[in-house]
Write the structure tokens for this entry.
Amino acid sequence: MNLMRLCAFVAGIAISLAAYSQDLPYTTGFEPAEGYILGVYGPGPIDATANWNVEDGTAAIRHTVVYEDLQALEIGPLSAVDAPRSGGAAQTIWVQGAYRGMPQDEDPDISGLGPRSALLYFNTTQGVMVYDGLADPADWVEVGASVNSESWYLITIRLDFASRTWDLYLGDSLIAEGIGFMDPTLSTYNGFRYRASQNGSDYFDSFYVGLETPANIPVPTLVWVDFDYSGAEKGTESYPYNTLAEGVDGVQAGGTVRIKAGDTAETLQVTKEVRLESEGGQARIGIQP
Ligand SMILES: [Ca+2]
Ligand SMILES: [Ca+2]
């Protein structure tokens, strides 16, 4: 199989892109004020500081198909762009972008791709497809979100380098959780790659990568805390925080922090309205466990 032909857009993350390692956070809308000049580029850098590089084919800065403001990035058929960037020791990295892509009929062949954390593409009939390294065997799976080539989709990925899993948001909604990295040995964020299929040009805009939760992602109204827990933490029942401070921090004002039975030596001042509940027994605060 021909990798180039079959790879629609693959948001491949974490590869050996050491050349221009820059720090997080990074945000761009491909706007004139950020130094992005209308025109066709490739191969090589799209902007003066090489935040984006054309790796294959061509890409362009356009003002014709735009998600926000004046300009967006167009990725030509069978072309690929990279945004190398170093996540350092960060365990949780958010990657957000607006995509308008040509769906394709077949799963991309990823056999020659090299290490990646999160991979996704748009399928003509199945919609958004993600590569789940935890599936048995690892494979492309459907997440139940249909797509078309005429609409923009705001896609947010939460990469968790502790558990080597990722979560997927479409717009403001969490649509898949705990998807396995393609390569479970990856321990750090190294960049972002977008490849367009042979079916036409794709468009990309409003990119963000960083440690802070993007503004559109809702802060939960219920978070879980388990003082005895060690592992990846998201504040959910399966991946609870292990301190009360994290629970209070991570919940919406007026929301609920549900604490599994146990003790914590923490003493803290709560400065917003929250409801504290214990689950499965007594939860004690300010008590040496
Ligand atoms: Ca823009
Ligand atoms: Ca913690």
The pocket of calcium ion (ligand 1) is lined by residues 29-31, 66, 68-69, 71-72, 205-206 (CB under 6 Å).
